[in-house]
Amino acid sequence: MAIWDDVIPEQDKKIYEVAGWSKPGGFGKRPALLLVDIIYNFVGDPEEPILDSIKKWRYSCGTIGWDGVRATSRLVAKAREKKIPLFYTQWERRPDFLDMGRWNDKNFRVDDGIDVTGHHGNDVVKEVAPQEHDMVFVKKKPSAFFGTSLASYLIDFGIDTVILTGTTTSGCIRSTAIDAFSYNYYCIVPQECVWDRGQLSHKVNLFDINAKYGDVVELDPVLKYLDSIPTDLFHDRWPRQMKR
Q1: Domain that holds residue 106
Q2: Are 112 and 58 in contact (CB under 8 A)?
Q3: Choosing from 61, 172, 187, 193, which is the catalytic residue?
């Protein structure tokens, strides 16, 4: 049973099946792990149920987000073991709102200061925190590709597969998956490692990503796939001190 089976109408499932969608795209040979906005703003600090957490952290997904962090930490550990490149995005804004664009129009709590540059809310959660050699950059829009140098990094590393984790499924994950697809990357979404504040949005978007833009799979097959990757695959790309 797929994670979305309880919310997608049977007729919709049949339409997609007959039309040929949801064929597995598979994994490539040179993966990277992309962690999208796994920051305290999107899970809260400390861990609390969502309706408590969002009183302070308006972006928070509460305990569901922390479940995602714990699952993602397993994937991060495996990626580091196999020396797979890790790329992180963060989210922050200027105090004067001039870099927010249309975000200013869509939430009446936009004045909350939790996402201002320098706030703890913008820090990557310590359980999956980047290390010195990881790539970390700030994005301003949902997709990790939009207005950033992510694509150029992936090209430089010869990446063909993006393993996509983070939040939220209906926003940043979906838009990043579509852009990864548009750049012809294999896109893999471990379902335990993405989350959303709304469960209907979460499930519907996973269904749609899996139908058209990538493969939504359980975490264990992704870990098994990484186990199959040679540890020296990116040996020529790592800093000198990591080659020893």
Answers
A1: 27-230
A2: yes
A3: 172
2 assigned to some structural domain = no
CA 150-155-160 angle, 5° bins = 100
Tokens (6 digits) for 56: 């302070």
Q: How many CB atoms lie within 10 A of CB 19?
A: 9
**Total domain count, the chain:** 1
Q: 210: helix, coil or strand? A: helix
pTM: 0.94
Within a domain: 115: yes
Residue 42 CB partners (closer than 8 Å, separation 6+)? 57, 59, 60, 61, 65, 166, 167, 168
Tell me, yes or no, whether 165 lies in a domain: yes
The answer to whether residue 244 is domain-embedded is no
CA angle 218, 224, 230 (to 5 degrees): 140
187 assigned to active site: no
Token pair of 202 as six digits? 């979460």
Question: What is the domain-level CATH number for residue 192?
Answer: 3.40.50.850
- pLDDT, one tens digit for every residue, the chain (244 residues): 899 999 999 999 999 999 999 999 999 999 999 999 999 999 999 999 999 999 999 999 999 999 999 999 999 999 999 999 999 999 988 888 777 777 677 777 787 788 889 999 999 999 999 999 999 999 999 999 999 999 999 999 999 999 999 999 999 999 999 999 999 999 999 999 999 999 999 999 999 999 999 999 999 999 999 999 999 999 887 765 455 4
